[in-house]
Amino acid sequence: MTAEIIIPPGLLLIAGGLALPLLAHAGRVAAILALPLIALALVWMLPEGPAFAVDYFGYEIIPVRADALSRLFATVFLVMAFAGGLFALNQERVCELAAAFVYAGSAVGVVFAGDLITVFIFWEVMAIASTVVIWSAGAGAYRAGQRYVVVHLFGGVLLMAGIAGEVALTGSVAFDAMDANSYARWLILAGFLINAGAPPLSAWLPDAYPQASWSGTVFLSAFTTKTAVYVLLRGFPGTEILIYVGLYMVFYGIVYAILENDMRRILAYSIINQVGFMVCGVGLGSEMALNGAASHAFAHILYKALLLMSAGSVLLMTGKRKCTDLGGLFRTMPITAACGIIGALSISAFPLTSGFVSKSMISQGAADAHLMVVWLALAAASAGVFLHAGIKFPWFVFFQTDSGMRPDEPPRNMRIAMYIMCAFCIGLGVYPDPLYAMLPYKVDFVPYTGAHVVFQLQLLLFSGLAFFLMLGMLQRTLTITLDFDWFWRGLGRALASEFGGRSARAWVAFAEQSYLAANRLVGTLYQHHGPGGRLARTWPTGAMAFWTTVLLGAYLIAYYV
Amino acid sequence: MAIPKPGSDHWLVRPGTIRGIWAVSLGVLALTVLGDLVVEHHPHFGIDGSFGFGAWFGFASCVVLIVFSKTLGAILKRADDYYDR
Fold first, then answer.
1. Any idea of the CA torsion for A370, A371, A377, A382, to the nearest 10 degrees?
2. Cα gap A560→A37, rounded to integer Å
3. Does residue A3 register a pLDDT over 80?
């Protein structure tokens, strides 16, 4: 171990985030812009391998361990924290930005964690900080935030139970690639997958993210799910079930986004869709597919943030979030519209955008493994991405029927944040070499071949044709679509109203029966003891004397006999 | 940008422009399919080597996805204040 001081980049951001509310406005702006960049410099100064280790009750804790994979994720997290901070400078609730920085810092903490205990600690900090980001949006977000934190704490419980089992079985807390071959490891995998938005608990994501503020959702989209992708890449590469979990997520995201009306919930569903591609890549497990999953996570954070910045600008300037209320905004928000379109093209993996150079590696991984069904499903899903996010989002927000609204462009800092993200989306698409150089494995892949470009253009443009030909079936309605969260949001109430009604009827019947029974009892008593009752009659004294004589007579006779 | 005068909407949404956009788009679509004649594909599975594979597969996928979604929506859609009532 060297004598130089190692500052964990994640901790710097967490400490800075906690200090933000104490600073005056100017100092806060400076800190928001400087902290992520300083942390980014620290990331690239970290030595390769474990930086230091601490003994904790006989377990070796490695708070910071750097390699290509962790640097890749930390880099994009910090770029995101910087751009997100710049975008959110106008956010009046300081609490939200402070929580967002703690959230980003703990995500960076997870990607540098060399052992499972460190992973768990930062994992939980992330859950709490992200919940505060959601709650910062005000009263409307309270219940969604509550549901969100319950799901994540449940995921944390699974993870903790898994880690405890892993320690009991192997005696080690090391966090490296493992086979899912024990209950403990399955529990760890389940804990990771909950954060990735995997079924059946995926509904936390489209439920909670769109309830955050116009700036909060931008942060939320980046860290939780992509940290989950990181830990899957680190812990469970090549776990076959992930291929099918990923494919489910890919199509779940598309189908629900097609039916959705809230513009930011469309994008939330499409996060699950995109993370599905990455989870599938992790499941495929070849170097090509793992590189694809890692680079797709990198590209995805940037273009998804761009899309949500565009949507956040619309929300801030119009106060509207439903597609049925929006439309025609390109007239007065051309910059926001253009940025949204660039994000939409990137998520669709259009040639010359970042999505094209990253996602195609995952498909190539499936082709190399000769998995035809998986490859065809990924191709169909790529077409579906263009349908639900690539066209649907810009079309219904910025074009379609004119809503009559003429909002201004958002403030300058928000526009600059969007320009930065646009530069990344197009820059990496045109010149992917720097991204490829950061990937965990050597890249042996050429994205721009004539065959590949023609195939992708056909796939996407004909999806666009399908969109406009079937526009009638895609018109927005004022509806939501039921999901698994019905089981914890609707089931209890359905049972309550069902049994509530039944028990009310039963109670009425019971009360009536009791009343009748009581009436009968009182009637019987009245009959015998009432004024006309046999037992209540007044008897003459003579009768008494007669019966006494009879008894005495009977006694006399009995005595002599 | 100024609010357009009545009767003169943004040039992008005039019927003439929209017709033009359709014409150009259909031309581009045809070009991408014809692109299959120029480039050499390296199909992995056979089916992906068929003529205009990306075009027909992409179109068909989207039709299936939309129809499936609408069917599912018919069962699972609720008014958007469903949980607030």
1. -40
2. 125
3. no
Chain A residues lying within 8 Å of B68, measured CB to CB: 255
Q: What is the number of CB-based contacts under 8 A between chain A and chain B?
A: 162
Burial class of residue A330 (count of CB atoms within 10 Å of its CB; 0-12, 13-18, 19+): buried
A474:B52 CB<8 A: no
Q: What is the pLDDT of residues A356-401, one digit of tens each?
A: 999 999 999 999 999 999 999 999 999 999 998 999 999 999 988 8
* pLDDT for A254 beyond 90: yes
R_g of chain B computed on alpha carbons: 21
Mean pLDDT of the A144-163 span:
95
Residues of chain A with Cβ-Cβ distance to B10 below 8 Å are 330-331
- Out of B12, B56, B66, whose CB is closest to A474? B66
Question: Does the CB of B4 have a partner CB in chain A at under 8 Å?
Answer: yes
Chain B residues within 8 A of A210 when measuring between CB atoms? none
Weakly modelled stretches of chain B, pLDDT under 70? 1-8
Question: Measuring CA to CA, which residue among A278, A337, A330, A275 is closest to residue A306?
Answer: A337
Q: What's the whole-number average pLDDT of chain A?
A: 92
Nearest to A443 by CA among A72, A181, A106: A72
Chain A partners within 8 Å of B33 (Cβ): 458
Asked if A255's CB is within 8 angstroms of B58's CB, the reply is no
Residue B63 has its nearest CB partner, among A461, A466, A480, at: A466
Q: Count Cα atoms within 13 angstroms, Cβ side, for A197.
A: 37
- For A144, the closest chain B residue by CA position comes to B83
Which pTM value belongs to this model? Answer: 0.88
Query: What is the tens place of the pLDDT at every residue in A171-189?
Result: 999 999 999 999 999 999 9
